[in-house]
Write a structure and sequence with these properties.
Blueprint: H1 2-13, E1 29-34, H2 39-54, E2 61-66, H3 67-72, H4 74-79, E3 85-87, H5 95-107, E4 114-116, E5 137-141, E6 143-144, H6 155-158, E7 163-164, H7 167-179, E8 184-188, H8 201-210, E9 217-221, H9 230-238, E10 245-247, H10 255-260, H11 267-280, E11 285-292, H12 299-312, E12 316-321, H13 339-362, E13 368-376, E14 382-386, E15 392-396, H14 400-406, E16 410-418, E17 422-427
Bound molecules: 5'-deoxyadenosine and iron/sulfur cluster (SF4).
5'-deoxyadenosine binds next to strand 11.
Length: 444
């Protein structure tokens, strides 16, 4: 969602004459769009700000946006007095006015620092300009905020209460994206499957989206098991555009820890959902988030998480050591797990997940699968894309004209190699693309 928000901030500022640069030194305005989910992410902001201070000349403005801005507000100005502007995730549609305020204050030698961490009554989505399209794949935020209040999580405090954009607004934005060349949309929300933009919910929205001619691929992320209703599960069976990949975080396999986390379900509920999903769509690739070392986690609880992973079999997953977030209930629990135990458990968990990911990828060698080529490789003859199962797939195309023809399209390729984080492939000659050789994994 931060990637989406950053792009939208660029869209908001473009009518003001701003263009994007990848080089901070060249910029008149640097915006750090920040994440507060774990302590490491939040601390990174201050070290990055320190670097920016060293290169800040008279005219450059520095803004902090996102969830660190929301959570820490004035504290940022105290720790980093050279910051001009602090703007929360619900207020970035006001960036032009906030920048103007800050510049005006500077001129009149008033304190020139502006903080906007309101949860405004208006929705920023009503004020954002048309999204600029960059390639065949796009994100589309349909829902924000969260009312679940998992004990470890800061999101309900930084992103606020659940809000669903109206269905017609989402459909209009999706149609516009498709008109501009997008064929692949990922619907975003902190709790995306709780979407209630109208009474038909997320499955109703996906059905409507699947009727947009030219939209070939639909995904959604991130979901909560409690909101995985039967209609949504059936959508995985009935809607070919809905890709066979689902990120459905479980966090832990232990009922005691799930209760401590306030996840509002037990491990068996999750496994039942997975079984129903697999019945609906047997080739569904699964992903999850895991937290190790949540307060109170014993070796037995951790073993239950490993057992759940063994039962499900993941295509990939994200895993984290529990990180104390100020203001959340878990941060005050008195049975915190020592850091060395967290590290040791994380290593074991990741060992198992990596093994599952490699097994999953190996199964594709020799198979033919449709890949959407949405990125250029480092060399002119390299293309990268995504399989239906979200794997990164690389090919080398000797003819740049043919590489151009493939870019932005779904092309069936033959998988020639499997790596930890990607597949290599060659394009099938009968498709009319004379692609030879396979590029080694760029990212291992
Ligand atoms: N510590 C560690 N991981 C966390 N996550 C959320 N809060 C914390 C925390 N305090 C993880 C969860 C969530 C993902 C986005 O980040 O696994 O699903
Ligand atoms: Fe955080 Fe997700 Fe739980 Fe909401 S459902 S509180 S975003 S972990």
């Amino acid at each position: 969602m931060n990637v989406y928000d950053s792009a939208r901030m660029a869209d908001v500022l473009s009518p003001e004459g701003y263009v994007e640069t990848k080089v901070a030194d060249d910029a008149d305005l640097v915006i750090l769009n920040t994440c507060h989910i774990r302590e490491k992410a939040a601390e990174k902001v201050y070290s990055e700000l320190g670097r920016l201070r060293d290169s800040k000349d008279g005219g450059k403005m520095i803004a902090v946006a996102g969830c660190v801005a929301q959570a820490e507000g004035d504290e940022i100005l105290r720790r980093a007095p050279y910051v001009d502007l602090v703007v929360g995730p619900q207020s970035y549609h006001r960036l032009p006015a906030l920048i103007a305020d800050s510049a005006l204050d500077k001129k009149s030698a008033k304190s020139s620092r502006v903080v906007d961490t309101e949860f405004p009554a208006e929705s920023k989505f009503d004020f954002l300009p048309k999204a600029n399209v960059n390639g065949p794949s796009a994100f589309l935020t349909i829902q924000e905020g969260c009312d679940k209040f998992c004990a470890f999580c800061v999101v309900p405090y930084t992103r606020g209460a659940e809000y669903s954009r109206p269905m017609h607004a989402v459909l209009d934005e999706a149609k516009q994206l498709v008109e501009d060349g997008v064929v692949d949309i990922t619907l975003l929300g902190q709790n995306v499957n709780s979407y209630h933009g109208d009474e038909s919910g997320l499955s109703g929205l996906i059905w409507k989206l699947s009727e947009i001619g030219g939209l070939e691929r639909i995904r959604y992320t991130t979901s909560h098991p409690r909101d995985m209703d039967d209609q949504l599960i059936a959508a995985h069976r009935d809607i070919p555009e809905l890709m066979p990949y689902l990120h459905l975080p479980v966090q832990s396999g232990s009922d005691a820890i799930l209760a401590r986390m306030n996840r509002q379900h037990v491990a068996e509920d999750y496994l039942d959902i997975i079984e129903k999903l697999k019945m609906a769509r047997p080739d569904l690739a699964l992903s999850s988030d895991f937290i190790v070392g949540h307060p109170g986690e014993t070796e037995e609880d951790f073993a239950a998480t490993l057992a759940l992973i063994e039962t499900v079999g993941y295509a990939q997953a994200y895993s984290f050591k529990y990180s104390k977030r100020p203001g959340t209930p878990a941060s005050d629990m008195d049975d915190q797990v020592p850091e060395d135990i967290k590290s040791e458990r994380l290593a074991r968990l990741q060992g198992l997940l990596n093994q599952q990911q490699i097994t999953f990828n190996n199964n594709f060698v020799g198979e033919r699968i449709p890949v959407l080529f949405d990125r250029r490789g480092k060399l002119p003859d390299q293309l990268a894309g995504r399989s239906p199962y979200m794997q990164a797939v690389h090919v080398t195309c000797m003819d740049p004209i043919q590489a151009d023809a493939m870019f932005g399209k779904v092309v069936t390729v033959e998988i020639t190699g499997a790596h930890a984080n990607s597949l290599s492939a060659s394009v099938i000659k009968e498709n009319g693309f004379a692609v030879v050789g396979a590029m080694e994994a760029a990212s291992a």
